[in-house]
From TrEMBL, chain A:
Key words, A-Z: Cell membrane, Membrane, Phosphate transport, Transmembrane, Transmembrane helix, Transport
SUPFAM superfamilies in the record: MetI-like (SSF161098)
Chain ranges passing through the membrane: 12-39, 59-86, 107-127, 139-157, 198-221, 255-277
Top-rank taxon, per record: Bacteria
UniProt-recorded name of the protein: Phosphate transport system permease protein
Subcellular location per the Swiss-Prot or TrEMBL entry: Cell membrane
Function of the protein: Part of the binding-protein-dependent transport system for phosphate; probably responsible for the translocation of the substrate across the membrane.
Species the sequence originates in: Blautia caecimuris
Membrane topology category: Multi-pass membrane protein
Limits of the ABC transmembrane type-1 domain: 66-274
Cross-referenced Pfam families: BPD_transp_1
InterPro entries membership: MetI-like, MetI-like_sf, Phosphate_PstC, Phosphate_Transport_Permease
Family as reported in the entry's similarity comment: Belongs to the binding-protein-dependent transport system permease family. CysTW subfamily.
From TrEMBL, chain B:
Subcellular location: Cell membrane
InterPro entries registered for this protein in UniProt: MetI-like, MetI-like_sf, Phosphate_PstA
TM ranges: 37-62, 92-114, 126-150, 156-175, 205-229, 269-289
Protein name: Phosphate transport system permease protein PstA
UniProt domain ABC transmembrane type-1: residue ranges: 88-290
Family: Belongs to the binding-protein-dependent transport system permease family. CysTW subfamily.
Keyword annotations: Cell membrane, Membrane, Transmembrane, Transmembrane helix, Transport
PROSITE patterns in the record: ABC_TM1
Keyword Cell membrane carried by entry: yes
Annotated membrane topology: Multi-pass membrane protein
Stretches the record annotates as Disordered: 1-20
Organism lineage string: Bacteria, Bacillati, Bacillota, Clostridia, Lachnospirales
Length: 285, 300
């Protein structure tokens, strides 16, 4: 009796463990099965590199959206990475012990704030600010990149700080003993030693930025055309799906799902490079 | 008196020492201006990061709290009074049911990975890779999948159930990973002692290993609650946006969706900011709780 119970539960545990395998399998199956035929019908080249998105005229080119996703993410990296790196240096090396705990939970809070709240903040604070300072409508590439730059801060700071902390203290002391200043030791010795961990953190931030949906929709303007400047609106792939899925039917709907497939492939590539980087970081230690 | 004077004296001394090391530091920065600039930038970045956080939280609280009126919590939603009560109840239902499904699966999966799987097992490798992949997928892709699978293929229509199942897949890797870490942190001597007393494997797991891993598992579940409450993109086309408390096969919006609909319509921005306050309070409480759970782990 006991043996049957032990065996039975082992199988239950194993089935539960396979749930994630089943989930990934189903996600791939349903996305690709619904999206790839549409890409075939439109023509892969027209779909990926067509610059006109006019569903009412049966023109489905998502090149503007791909470019917009890359631009917005690039901008977010430019804004977020320097601040995040310096903040992690502060957290790992400068922060007085007394205020470390509250600051750390502040960063955790930042990671926990939902994207819809960030989006709302962007909409009621940043967009009017950009409108008043630079003119235009305010909903723009700049607003999206600034907001995403803020949102990826905690994503990058967490892993970067632990990468910095895992560098042996002897590196730092050795550098000090050679007469280097504290800053020189941190930025020329510690940071290069933590390189692969930091790179993995940045890739994680890229993944978060490119997949972000709700916050971007609220501040980016969502015009389906090639990006025309930093103060003009643009539409990312994620925004394309959400803004039009509500009323799309037939070919239009399939083209939107196909947009999701392209986004999914982007994410898979980012995930793959992330796990490669993580393996390298583990080997380096 | 004397002790007081001595204390004062030592205090003055330590202050002197502090200020002299500070001037030393400044002098060294004058000699190495590059270092000084870097130190300044580092401090500036940290101040910037936390200023943004404080501004964000403060702005939303100050903007939204005045609009937290009793009408906002009435049970009936209509176009004049965009009550958040139905969404609040839906959020609660979805959080509970998602966890009821996701927590056992996630914890059982972690038990398999930690207690049963042999090293180098090919299945384990596949499970790990897929869990890693799942945790990197953005919520809009989960939303698309939920729409294609639960809503369309299984013909559930836009419903709470479709939303719940989509969320289960989304939080599963999070619960799996945190539970796995919690189980791994239980010392092997516990298991050996239990085996030594004649307990079977199953009994050891449920009476010895799991109870000692509870704080870690709880921390993961709390994080999952946070993700469920804030989720929008995955629910927009799975649970839908109808402002009512439906049965499980009907469409209903959560708080985050309520906020999205209000702010994208643009007619009830004040009520949207009040909803933001409610969500933010939840997030603050969740953060506080997970911090507490983490402290209990640290204590052992």
């Amino acid at each position: 009796m006991n043996k049957i119970k032990e065996r039975g539960m082992k199988i239950v545990f194993m089935v539960a463990a396979c749930a994630s395998v089943l989930a990934v399998f189903l996600i791939c199956l349903f996305l690709f099965a619904s999206g790839i035929p549409a890409i075939g019908k439109i023509g892969p080249l027209e779909f990926l590199f067509g610059t006109e998105w006019r569903p009412s005229n049966d023109m489905y080119g998502i090149f503007p959206m791909i470019v917009a996703s890359i631009y917005v993410t690039g901008g977010a990296i430019l804004v977020g990475v320097p601040v995040a790196l310096l903040t992690s240096v502060f957290m790992a090396r400068y922060c007085p012990k007394k205020i470390y705990r509250p600051l750390k939970s502040g960063i955790e809070l930042m990671a926990g704030v939902p994207s819809i709240v960030y989006g709302f903040f962007g909409l009621v604070v940043m967009v009017p600010m950009i409108r008043e300072t630079f003119g235009g409508t305010g909903t723009s590439w700049l607003a999206a990149s600034l907001l995403l730059g803020i949102m990826i801060l905690p994503t990058i700071i967490g892993p970067t700080e632990s990468a910095l902390r895992s560098v042996p203290e002897s590196y730092y002391e050795g550098s000090l003993a050679l007469g280097a200043t504290k800053e020189r030791s941190i930025f020329r010795v510690m940071l290069p030693a933590a390189k692969s961990g930091i790179l993995a953190a940045v890739v994680l931030g890229i993944g978060r930025a490119i997949g972000e949906t709700m916050a971007v929709i609220m501040v980016a303007g969502n015009q389906a055309r090639m990006p025309q400047g930093i103060l003009k609106g643009l539409r990312t792939m994620t925004a394309n799906i959400v803004t039009e899925m509500g009323y799309a039917t037939g070919m239009h709907r399939e083209a939107l799902i196909a947009t999701g497939v392209v986004l999914f492939v982007f994410i898979l590539i980012i995930n793959l490079s992330l796990s490669l980087l993580n393996r390298r970081a583990e080997n380096a230690n | 008196m004397q002790t007081n004077a001595a204390a004062l004296n030592s205090q003055v001394n330590s202050k002197k020492r502090n200020s002299s090391s500070l001037t030393d530091q400044l002098r060294s920065y004058l000699r190495h201006p590059g270092s000084g600039i870097l130190a300044f930038l580092t401090g500036l970045a940290a101040v910037l990061t936390f200023a943004v956080l404080i501004f964000l939280v403060g702005y939303i609280l100050i903007k939204g709290i005045p609009y937290l009126t009793p009408e906002l919590f009435s049970f009936e939603y209509n176009s004049e009074n965009v009550s958040l009560m139905p969404s609040l109840i839906n959020t609660f239902i979805m959080t509970v049911l998602t966890l009821v499904i996701a927590a056992p699966i996630g914890i059982f999966a972690a038990i398999y990975l930690v207690e049963y799987a042999q090293k180098g097992n090919r299945l384990v490798k596949v499970i790990r890779i897929t869990a890693e992949t799942l945790s990197g997928i953005p919520s809009i892709v989960f939303g698309l999948f939920g729409m294609l699978f639960f809503v369309t293929a299984l013909q559930w229509g836009m419903s709470l159930m479709a939303g719940i199942c989509t969320l289960v897949i989304m939080v599963l890797p999070l619960i799996m990973r945190t539970s796995e870490e919690a189980l791994k942190a239980v010392p092997d001597s516990y298991r050996e002692a239990s085996f030594g007393l004649g307990a079977g494997k199953l009994r050891t797991i449920f009476t010895i290993v799991l109870p000692s891993a509870v704080p870690g598992i709880l921390a993961g579940i709390i994080l999952a609650i946070g993700r469920i409450i804030g989720e929008t993109a995955a629910l927009l086309y799975t649970s839908g946006t109808v402002a009512q408390v439906p049965n499980l096969m009907g469409s209903g919006r959560t708080l985050a969706l309520h906020m999205y609909v209000l702010s994208s319509e643009g007619l009830h921005m004040n009520q949207a900011s009040a909803t933001a306050v409610v969500i933010l309070v939840f997030v603050l409480v969740i953060n506080w709780l997970s911090g507490k759970a983490a402290k209990r782990i640290a204590k052992g």
